[in-house]
Structures are given as C-alpha cells and as structure tokens.
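YcjX family protein
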Amino acid sequence: MVLRRLTDGVARGIEGAVSTVSETFFEPVIRLGVTGLSRAGKTVFITGLVANLLDRGRMPQLRAHAEGRIDAVFLQPQPDDTLPRFDFENHLAAILGEDPRWPSSTRSISELRLSFRVRPSGMISGLTGPRTVHLDIVDYPGEWLLDLALMDKTYAQWSEETLKRLSLREEARDFMATARAADGSLPLEEAQAQALAASFTAYLQAARRAGWSDCTPGRFLLPGDLAGSPVLTFAPLPMPAQTSRTSLWREMGRRYESYKENVVRPFFREHFSKIDRQVVLVDAMGAIHAGPQALEDLRRTMAEILTAFRPGRNSFLSTLLLGHRVERILFAATMADHLHHTQHPKLTAIMEAMLREARDRAAFAGSLTAAMSLASVRATVEEEVTRHGETVEAVRGRLLSSGRQVAMYPGELPSDPSRLLSPAREGVQRWLDAEFALMTFAPARVLLKPGEGPPHIRLDRAAEFLIGDRL
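Structure:
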C-alpha cells in the first residue's frame, strides 16, 4: 500500500512535470499586464478587449484574424488559484444592458485566461496542425505600480519630495498644517501617528478626485485587509535636527520601510516581475481638461513609474541569467471617443511627447514600445455642430449623470504638443489661449450582430501590437 502511494505520487509528479513542459513549449503563455492611473479605464479596456477577441467582427487590424488563422478563442480558468477571476461576464453585461453603465473600477489584482486555437502560417502551415496560445490578462491598480518608485527612496527623500510637492496644492492644506505642527523629534504617540496617517489619506483621496496622478502610497487608497495596520500608519514629515530611536520620525521611517518590504516587494516579486507585455492606460484628456499643472503631474508621474519596467527581449538565457523582462509596452491614451477622429493624431502626438523620455529609454534597452489613442468601448458618435457661428467637428453621447443626449466640442488640440507641454513644465496656472471641455458619457445603447464585439476605436491595433506576433 505504501509502495503504491509512492508510485502513484511519482506518477502524478511526472504527469505534472510533463504538463508544465507541454504548456511551456507547446502551448505558449503570454502574460499581459493592464494598469493605469485612476479613471484611465482598466476594467473597460479588459472587458472590451476580451469581448472583441471572442467575437472578432470588429478586429480587422488583428492580422491572425484577417488571415483566417484563428479557429477559436475561448475562456478558461486562470492558472493562479490564489487570484480572483476578472469578472468579465458581469462587466460586459453592465456595458451592454438595457440601461448601459460602466462597470466598477479596479480595487485589487485579478486575472483572466483567454486561449486561442490558431493555425500556423508560411511554409510550415501544411505540416503542422492548429496550436493553442494562452493569454493571461493580469489587472492591477495603477496606484500599486506607483509604489514601485518608492523602492529606491529613503523615508527622508520621500518625505522631502512629497512635502515640497504638496505645499503647492490646495487639497493638501489641512495635512500640511498637521505635518508642520508635528515635532518628529518627540517620542512616538500612537494617537498622533494615526491622526497624521488619517490626514494624509484624506489628502490622497482629495487629490485623486481633483485629478492628480501621484497619489502614493497606493495602498492608502486601496487598503483592503491592511486597513488600520501599522504598515499603513505613517506620513511624510519635516526632518527634525535630532531624532532618538523612539522618536516619531524614526518610527514613521521604520513603518515606511516596512511598507516597502511587506507590501511593495511581494507584489513586484509575485506578480509584476512575471509580466511579458504591458499596457499603461492614461487619461490624457482628463489631465488636459484639469489644466497645465495636472498635465505636468501626469507626465512626471508616468516617467517615474515606467522606470520600474525592466525592458528587453525575453529568451531562455536572458530569463535564466538576467531575469524576466517586459518585451512590449503600449502607452495608450483612453477616451479617444471624446474627440472627433480628426483630432486623434494630435492626442497620440501629445501622448508620445509626454512619455518620450521614458519611452526612448525603454526602446534603447530593447523593448518594443508604441503610443496610440483608443477607446475601449465607444460611447459617442461624430457630428458637426455650430458654435459661435462656426461649424465645428464634435461628438454626441448620453450623459452619465442624466442620460440626456448632448453634443460636445472639447476644444481644438494643438498640432504641436509643445504648446501644451511647455507651459505645463513652466508651471502656469491655466491655459492662456485655449479652453478644453470634457463631459462624462455613459455607454451607448447598441445592438450587436452575431460575431461582433462592442464598438471601439483601435482595440484591434492595440491587440496586434501586444500579441499579434505570438499568434
């Protein structure tokens, strides 16, 4: 009996090993990370992408589909049993329901596996049959990605940078008064530490509502089961002249280091470091609408967090010797449907210019990068309207707040991105020669034909860039 259990165990081990090898070499897996900052539309992007990969009638730019080589696409259980499944079906039902609405935003990490049965192309097409390629989509909050920039900063550095930035913001007025009144050299009092952390959290929540991008540490906004723990009970403070081992300053620094070690590092090790392809979604239109300072904040924040990527081409030896590297990174400006299509190239150009420093660094290191503007689920139609006696190209949609149909002319984006980015870098308070409007539209009511996914803008181009080479 013991021998039988042992041999059965060996057999199961061999079967598991063979299964793993089979999947690695004969059923390749692409791990696609999807992230972005608040309101960038991560949940809608994944829902629209998966729906349009399952029903590919609106995906002409996906080459494997255009060439008729995709036999089937189907959902499967995700491979990681410890992660929640991305709730695709309910999210899609919300978008396509009788009263369409946007699904709830990302609150934690989740995963979904999509499997492709594809036929090979070229000279070997007649020699081998269809093969299976798995796409594991990993959805995680952009605020968690921001935290990776903390890994190379001490508590003193982080405090100094954060307080300098917050001193210029109205949303931080109450917290700055609290922080300046605190004497970090005095012994720790837990009630004071909790009050400082609560005030700092209130600022982060207000900053996110106001459209600021650098709302970190991210778990302060999405604490989950860490709420109230010491690892989330710290805040930036002015550095005192002297600090004892039991001082408030020292304890705040210890908790900051504990946050990096026990929250940030495990996320990087367990999830982020395994990504093959990455989408970074950016609400560029929202930042432009919010003004020059919000646009500069977005540019600086995106440049900082993208240094967390380790770009380069994967291979067996590079993975073995140098670690996992992101092969392709797509920088996507969302909500392109809030602009007439004639302005989409301008939005893409602004996106490219805003991320040029980080993008060029990634490209130099061997990672393939691209920037584009897209709409994961199109909510508007285009039309011409009269404004101040002049005909302008606008979009029409259903207002999220009231359901009323309205036309919107958001303003004319400049052909030269520097006309926006230069004033933003110089710290001007508002756009001097232009106004940019923005409305929030609900999903449009649509009736899909068989084989069609929800209407979108350039999701097929995004899919071709991200996974087309592996199909």
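Residues 1-24, 314-322 have pLDDT under 50 and may be disordered.
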